[in-house]
Amino acid sequence: MSWLFLIEGLLTILFFKGMIPLFRSRGIVQYVREEGPQLHNYKQGTPTAGGVLFLLVFLAFYVGFQFFSPSPLFVPVVLATLFFGGIGLLDDALSIRQKNSHGLSARSKFLLQLAASLVLFFVIQGHEVQSPIMLFSSSFELHLGWVYPLFFVLYLTGFSNATNLTDGLDGLSGGTALISALGAQLLMILLGVSDYSMLFLAGALLGFLWFNVKPASIFMGDAGALALGGVIGTVALCTRSAIFFVFLSLVFWIEVLSVVLQVSSFKIFHRKIFRMSPIHHHFELLGWRESQIVIRFWIANFLGVVLSLALVLV
Description:
The protein is mainly alpha-helical. 69% of the residues lie in helices and 1% in strands. It has one domain. A two-stranded antiparallel ribbon has the order 1-2. The two termini are 27 Å apart.
């Protein structure tokens, strides 16, 4: 499988090399959020919505591989890609059309994510994917009963938001997702799950990351950022590994937790915990260079992957 991973990565690089000039000429470019750090103003005008491209590569390889090795997770994974990628694409399209960073309202985006998560819950239940959650070891299970549907929807929506919030620095979300996806594939092999969605997602991200590291030639946009959490979260739920995937995607969950803590503290105590959230902006305002933050967050996520794999082997 390693050769297929490398071939996919190389083809993705060639795909992006040809498409980036086209995106720029068509005005498919980034508009920087006014509330973000002023350090990011230079990124305005960089091609965006690159997530659409790596999702197309991912789906092409994943769908094609089904002819050789059918996966029990095929339908949920493809639907998660289309649903969450579609929500992000709509947001990107509105932003590009309006020539600002607004896109979908936060409320509309959240409601669409909840709806997509609910549909996926019924789809997965229809495919008889087991619902108990492995708890810190493959030997122990947690049965949530009637609470499970609520957990499912909130977990998947939260995961999608987590990857989206992390997409704020060159290479941060893409590199973190690449590490998480490779770790998730190893986890599925250890659990005996016959599915290679995470390997193909990692291959597509490898090619994207070639152009997304600082200084980025293209951004993934919400199409890619929302889909990453939707797809990885769906695999976590289908394999009963939601707890393990929190560690596999440690940085993503730290990012979303920093936003929850910041908003809660400000509403309740009228005080901020961080200089700015998500937390990567806090470190920017402390004076850390963008490359320092990205590499250190990659290391933190890698350590989370190691911890997760160690737990599953207990």
